[in-house]
User: Fold this.
Amino acid sequence: MLTLSKNLRNSLLSACGLALAATGNAAEIHVAVTGNDTNPGTLAQPLATFAAAQAKARTLAGLEPVNVTFQAGTYYLADTIHFNAADSGTAANPVTYRAAAGQTVALSGGNLLAGQSWTTHSGSIQKTTVPAGMIIDQLFVGQVKQNLARYPNYIANTDIFNGYAADCISPTRAAMWADPTGGFFHALHSGEWGGFHYRITGKNASNVVSYTGGQQNNRGTAIHGTYRFVENIFEELNAPGEWFYNSATSTLYFHPPAGVDPSSAVMETAGRLKHLVQFDGTQAAPVKYVNLSGFIFRHAARTFMETYEPLLRSDWTIYRGAAVLLTGTEDCSISACEFDQLGGNAVFFSNYNRRSSVIGSYFHDIGASGVCFVGNPSAVRNPLFNYDSPKNSYTSPSFDKTNAGPQNDDYPADCRVENCLITGIGRVEKQPEGVQISMSSRITVRHCSIYDCARAGINIGDGCWGGHIIEFCDTFDTVLETHDHGSFNSWGRDRFWRINNATNSQLKAVSLLDANEQTILRNSRWQCDHGWDIDLDDGSSNYLIENNLLLNRGLKWREGFYRTGRNNVILRNSLHPHVWYPDSGDIFEKNIVSDSYKPAIMPSIPVKWGERLDYNLFPTEAMRTAYASNGCDANSLTGDPMFVSPASGNFQVLAGSPALTLGFVNFPMNQFGVTTRPFTVNSKSITVRIPALAGSDVPPPPSPQPDSLPSIFRWLGAQIKSVITIEEASAFGTNPDDGGVYFQGAYLGSAAATTGLLESDLIASINGTNVVTVEDMITALSAATGDVTFGIVRD
Assistant:
């Protein structure tokens, strides 16, 4: 267990290095919940609202430093706060909106329910009438979020959806509902690559439920048959803490938890505002030097049914909005803030932004993603928007083989997220990230602690345009509710990826046109539950991965070029080479690994992998030589790495370690994650699960390799095997539970060579019957009469 020390708010503000002018040299505007907007805005006679303070600050902006200071309380915003170029400060005269020192100041997009008269509806369910026209999609009691009426009931600490039921929209269940219209149906993707959300539109006479939606995933396919639930259905209001709102009658129903009296409890709602603050600049007229500091942002609406756009050929789509949405900013900052139980994204940098930052802030229990950087697709050359879109043709006149980088400036660049604590990501949506980067350049994520995430901690959705630096981060307990992803995940489905009519050398030549600057992951600690600690997927190129500690699931590279992994410590696992191009230019050297490599769909004949895989330390000779025929590790060594103190998480090596002979260099093991706590969480303990190694300091024995498993068969002159590992399933883009038969190749002239099956096909079905194992395939073929139809996954 690693516990970080406490730090005071003042030290945090100092560490942020904000250009806050001294009080004596700045114009001061004061705001208090007890103020009045007709007041002059002094400490003795404060204003009452953010809007009034902004109007006053605008008259001074850029002429002198301006500090707008809010006294303690919750400020219920009448509407979204909009900043534009007229609100801008300058480097010498910034404009800062801030909480008073030591005060708790919340900006809310919801409503306070005060003075409500509650009566008994039936049993333990209470009801009250609220003002007509209210929009309610979340209910909070004493700042604790309550559960919208659902089936199955909410179960704390349940891995997926806090409870799921395969029969949640079955006719039998739906027969219990008078009218489910307006309810929501949530489910995971069939491959567990995120989630889908639907609005229920009704049911027919046979109690078959109808619904619309599902736009939240960019690789749609099927809905998971088990991981699903429904909510916002009145008949499911049957558990303490559940509620339901009938907007037609303005009636709010609530099943209070034990000890809660709704007539005296502090009750607040959300649903009215999707965005609390917006920066509405442009490249021609940006918002400059406006700082938000010390606020708590609460009660932004859920946005999972809003318009979602695909992020190029990323696996997911995104809602381009957040509690704080920044468009067209330069040198703006969010510091020492808390983002509390928001319905959608917390912070979103959209399109043109330069040198803006999020520093020293605390994000927790967020409906979607924490901090997003997403550019405009108009800046991308040869963009495609779906995984299955027709691939570019290398010979097409429209395919740009020459120009590198973006074609305009409408994207975030040179921005940073630093010293932030980000936890509880994806409480509503299941394709979220702690930090998301797409169509952006030179984004820095530094000294962040990111954990308890439904999917990745940090995701880079494409290679456009690299230059990012991820360093000194601590990212763990990730991919908790989904599968086939990474604590750090990336895609590189850029111009070059799988284009038609291209040779390997042509692909390599254009692989850096979009990923034109190197992305660096260094000095960080990673841990993933259902995938890989670091997952460079589908063409991710131009990466340097150096001085990282990987705790659990290893390092995966797939279908990219020019990746270097150097001086990393990989515990309980190893490098996962997946579907490499010949002559990839990849280098893996001077690493400490705990197992032999774990390839998937790599060349079956002896062929050199990458530019250099060598000078690494393995536990045993068998692990070192497992892929000698592929030109790997002729100069690598075996032995005990001699870690300093594995139990306490120090995986530096002692003098005399064979790793030092190979050129391994110790890197700091005590600088991962936040260095100065966000002031709202001084007492919060952050713990990382350090893996127990077999014996004392000796890594665990190797897992069986695919070629040694008893699933290899000869069939009609071909070699086939059951798909049984997560590595193989990921390489085919399928769910491990679905299995299938991997057609590894046929001898020339053999009967199998005449079937039309190609090397690296996945046989998923025969004559319409699913095939999970080789045994299933043999059974299906034996039962077949006449022609045989293979259902395959190819390319």
In short: The longest strand covers residues 195-203. Helices lie at 9-16, 50-58, 171-174, 504-510, 621-624, 658-661, 726-732, 774-783.
